[in-house]
Amino acid sequence: MKFYSTNNKALRTDFKNAVFNSLPADKGLYMPEEIPKLDPLFIKNITHYSLQEIALEIAKIYVGDDIPAAALKNIVEDAINFEAPIRFLDSETGVLELFHGPSFAFKDFGARFMSRIMGYFSREDDQLLDVLVATSGDTGGAVALGFLGVPGTRVTILYPKGKVSKVQEQQLTTNGQNIRAIEVEGTFDDCQALVKQAFNDPEVNKQMRLTSANSINISRLIPQTFYYFWAYAQLRAQGISDVVFTVPSGNYGNIGAGLLAYKMGLPVTNFVAATNANDTVPRFLTSGTYEPKPSVQTLANAMDVGDPSNWVRIQDLFNYDLSALQHLICTYTYDDEATLAGVQEMYDQYGYVACPHTAIAYLASKAYRAAHPGTYASILLSTAHPCKFPDAIPPALFKQVKVPAGADYLARGEKQAVPMQANYDAFKTYLIAHK
């Protein structure tokens, strides 16, 4: 399988180079040269496969001969060593819980797969691999734990000061070893811009071997398709074949993976993009004009993205056909007041405590069903465990949160973060001085 740049379809590179380069030189994003259709028999018999078996089947398509089959099997089984169950709230609505990995967020799927892919490719290299990542909350923790202790790698995480939860910050800043954190005076968009500038800086790249762990990296996107197929397998096991996925959407990597799965042959009726006040894509789908704006801080901080990187991939998947996107993707936007009401309603009606992102998906799922009645399963993606948001969930309700086993590490260690202005010269100086 070869990969091209969204800015130049004539450019072609293999999987290894796409993973390590992260961004093509022309500042596009890598996409597979073709979207393979899975064997219809595989879809028909999907209930016979485990999550890990489904993941391996998909990974083989994109990785090809770059990694031997036995080694890829070991990578998948080591990376995806946790479950992603659907918990039904009622007969029509289910929650796909994607927070059962070590960082308690859906980003574990991509980060763990990516870290092991990079570790495999780097096993015989002498040069240190520097992984840069910008985070609005959950990505950084997943990447930190995914790469912690991986030989030959060093991770630098940029996060916006005061705009991640205390628990998220602990996951970013207390690891030590090969993980370091930079606390940026600015927004997630500022952090993301600094990372992108570094990748396009010849002087930095001459001195360091850089790669990205953000969802701009194709090896983050591919493993996120795994859980869409796994969700469908769980539904088919219950005799359900029609499904609408509602996805909390910030940088649009999560729903982008779902749309990639759809292009691969996953039967999906519709996708619902659930957003907070950062509504660049909903406005685009309404007006046809893409007008990014500075991100604003909300309770659902992992979605605080004003200019989502992965939207260009989604447009590329559909050949920039606005009508096709409008047909397949519905969007609903909610402010913090509505988000809190959604958190409370999920608990009052179902005894389910959800994180703010999941609550937004719940509200969007309700709105979609009201506008589109029918006999389908409405599956909302729960992207993070509520234990990560003690400041965003009302105290009385947060007391009902069951902290998962293994979360005790969050109380250990002191914060280690370098304060920095949202200034590329300062970031560049830091990188070169600490190479």
Explain this structure.
A hairpin with a 4-residue loop joins β4 (86-88) and β5. The chain starts with a strand and ends with a helix. The protein has a domain at 83-106 and 221-398: 3-Layer(aba) Sandwich (Rossmann fold). The strands form 3 sheets. The protein has a 6-stranded mixed β-sheet with strand order 4-5-13-10-11-12, sandwiched between helices. Strands 9-6-7-8-14 form a 5-stranded parallel β-sheet, with helices on both faces. The longest helix is centred in the N-terminal third of the chain and has 16 residues, at 107-122. By secondary structure, it is α/β, with parallel strands linked by helices. The chain is built from 19 helices and 14 strands. The model has no long low-confidence stretch (mean pLDDT 92). It is globular, with a radius of gyration of 20 Å. Helix content is 43%, strand content 17%. α3 packs across α4 (69-79), α3 (51-63) packs antiparallel against α11 (226-237) and α12 runs parallel beside α14.
Task: List the defining traits of the structure above.
five-stranded parallel sheet, six-stranded mixed sheet, 19 helices, 435 residues, alpha/beta, Rossmann fold
Question: How would you summarize what this structure contains?
Answer:
By secondary structure, the protein is α/β, with parallel strands linked by helices.
